Amino acid sequence: MLVLLAGIFVVHIATVIMLFVSTIANVWMVGSSSFGTVSTGLWLLCNKTCMQLPVRSQDEASLKAVQAFMILSIIFSVVALVLFIIQLFTLEKGKRFYMTGAVMLVCWMCILIAVSIYTARFTGTVVYSTNPHHGYCFILAWICFCFSFVIGILYLVLRKK
């Protein structure tokens, strides 16, 4: 049981770190241009230098929603980690980690909403570039989506023995 708890804890910390990286780094979409590689993220457009991400007026609300939901997913994931640690030492034997699982599933939902909006609105569009493809931050966000779902379900099923 201790090994299972430790494993879940390590995967949860890895998920938090990957969420931070995928939200902060600007490599959601990558393309090539005559100046080299161009990458866009949630915040900046980077070539050799970074500048404010140019967004069409009809896509601005979508980008703000993606930014907000990714930040919320980080917050909920950290809150779930703190709840897990608190419940680990305060729960009686035989009790389940319901609160931790519920908060982690809210994190999962926030990631789902953010990445789905980004996929629907911004896939295939990198300003000033050709041949756009997804970057590592986009892939990390989907990996975090899977990990947070599995962790949330494990927390709901897991009993403290």
TrEMBL record:
From the record, give the transmembrane residue ranges: 7-29, 65-85, 97-118, 138-158
- Does the record bear Nuclease in its keywords? no
Output the Gene Ontology cellular-component terms: plasma membrane
The cellular location(s) given in this protein's UniProt record come to:
Membrane
Which InterPro entries does this entry report, sorted A to Z?
PMP-22/EMP/MP20-like, PMP22/EMP/MP20/Claudin, PMP22_EMP_MP20
Q: Pfam families of this UniProt entry?
A: PMP22_Claudin
Residue ranges annotated as coiled coil are none
Top-level taxon in the UniProt lineage: Eukaryota
Q: What UniProt keywords are attached to this protein's entry?
A: Glycoprotein, Membrane, Transmembrane, Transmembrane helix
Membrane topology reported for the UniProt record: Multi-pass membrane protein
Regarding protein family, the annotation reads: Belongs to the PMP-22/EMP/MP20 family.
* Identification of the protein by name: Epithelial membrane protein 1
From which source organism is this entry?
Prunella fulvescens (Brown accentor)
